[in-house]
Every structure is written in C-alpha cells, then in structure tokens.
Design brief:
Elements (H helix, E strand, L loop, with lengths): L5 E5 L7 H20 L3 H14 L6 H15 L3 H17 E5 L1
Parallel strand pairs: 1-2
Helix pairs in contact: 1-2, 1-4, 2-3, 3-4
C-alpha cells in the first residue's frame, strides 16, 4: 500500500497528544476483539461511539467514520461489519502519515 494513502495534516499544537491518541485506538482494536469474543456489544458500541466523537477533533475523520460504522453495527449485532471496520482501522493506523503544520 502507498504509505501516503492516509496523509493527514494536523496542527502542530496537537503533536504531543497524537502518539498517545493513536496508541489508544490500537488498544481499542484489542478491546473490541475481546468484546466480540464475549458478544459484548455494549462495550463495542461505547468504544465505537468514543471513536466517532474523538476522531475529527484530532483531525482523523476516518476514525470518526469507522467509529460511527462500528457503533451502528452493534445495533444489528453485525459482527462481520464490526470485523471489517476493525480491519479498516488497523490498516489506517498502520499506513497513516502525519504532517504537523
């Protein structure tokens, strides 16, 4: 994959916060996978809702969109769609290129 596929421009004032934010999203992937193993859709919904609410504030509109889709998928208990969104988030995090301005 082209490593510039996910180039994101972020305000340099947020530079200190971004690594921790992205690290927490990686942890969310693990938590969602664990919750799926227990059919704990409420935990998945809360994590998706949190991503939906926080992504755009840091400049990561894709995280907002993925969070929204995860949250919506829990209403239908659609584990296939949740898995697709976890994969999309993982790919996004693995290929993100951040430019601080």
């Amino acid at each position: 994959m082209d490593h510039n596929a996910f180039t994101i421009k972020i305000d340099k004032d947020l530079e200190d916060l971004i690594p921790r934010y992205l690290e927490n999203r990686r942890r969310d992937i693990e938590l969602i996978q664990e919750a799926m193993g227990k059919s704990d859709f409420e935990t998945i919904r809360v994590l998706g809702h949190s991503m939906k609410g926080s992504g755009g504030g840091y400049g990561f509109d894709a995280i907002t969109e993925i969070g929204k889709l995860i949250e919506e998928s829990t209403k239908k208990m659609d584990t296939e769609e949740i898995s697709r969104q976890i994969e999309a988030l993982s790919e996004y995090l693995d290929n993100i290129n951040i430019v601080y301005e």
